[in-house]
Design a protein that fits this description.
2 domains, seven-stranded mixed beta sheet, two-stranded parallel sheet, 8 helices, 36% helix
């Protein structure tokens, strides 16, 4: 039986076929990929959303989003999530909003949270959810999903992960996850000290921008992104997350 995935969009932006926001674009592509794969995609989103799967709408907020409207919308999302989980067999819940902690469901099916924005933008408590079987995934990295934690590659070196996309080489120190994000001699240089950094800056013209773009296409292509997410869904549903995800 194909799984049912319940996706929660950021509730203050409509999910359309070609949305403006990056998180909405990712969700739109995953929604379509699920439908193409024969799975059931249920999306909780603002009125006016047009997912490929099934829409469970919450009231849209016109104009400025003030505290009272925010609270009402969060309450509507929580009610919608509870109703869907009560009446449907939901295999996995995928949250995309920066405010995901305001409507995190109670214990039940596994939850995947995509952190589309810089980690520092999230409420500190949101990054340490007490709910079991909750997995945080800094986007765009799908290689390491960690239960209640985030991925080193994109959390600690987001600029290096994204710098290669327009063809820019990276010079970085040998610390944290930077060696994972930079291919020494191909997309940039990994150095040990200030002298090495100065040397790397002098050698930057040795890096072919096309190699940087090729690495970006390989790592961040739309097809790869959707395929890896569907594989990740299957792993989490089976309860067999990658070894690094185990608490």
């Amino acid at each position: 039986m194909r799984p049912t995935v319940l996706s929660l969009a950021y509730p203050f932006a409509a999910l359309t076929a070609d949305p403006v926001g990056g998180a909405e674009q990712v969700l739109a592509h995953l929604d379509r990929a699920l439908v193409r794969a024969g799975s059931r995609s249920v999306v909780i989103g603002a009125e006016g959303s047009t997912p490929a799967g099934e829409l469970v709408a919450v009231p849209a907020v016109p104009g400025e989003i003030k505290d009272a409207a925010r609270s009402r919308t969060h309450a509507a999302v929580r009610a919608a999530v509870s109703a869907v989980i009560a009446r449907e067999r939901v295999d996995l819940v995928h949250l995309h909003g920066i405010d995901f902690d305001a409507y995190l469901p109670p214990p039940g099916p596994p939850i995947l949270v995509s952190l589309h924005l810089p980690i520092s933008w999230y409420a500190p408590g949101a990054l340490h959810p007490q709910r079991p079987n909750t997995h945080l995934l800094p986007f765009p990295c799908t290689r390491r999903v960690r239960r209640r934690r985030s991925c080193n590659c994109c959390r600690r070196s987001p600029r290096a992960c994204r710098r290669t996309i327009p063809g820019g080489p990276v010079a970085a120190t040998r610390s944290g996850a930077l060696p994972e994000a930079v291919e020494h001699g191909r997309t940039g240089f990994i150095v040990d000290d200030a002298a090495g950094m100065a040397d790397a800056m002098r050698r930057v013209d040795e890096i072919d921008p096309e190699n940087c773009r090729a690495a970006a296409r390989e790592r961040f292509s739309l097809q790869r992104m959707t395929d890896q997410h569907l594989e990740l869904y299957e792993r989490l549903i089976r309860g067999a997350a990658a070894p690094s995800a185990r608490a």
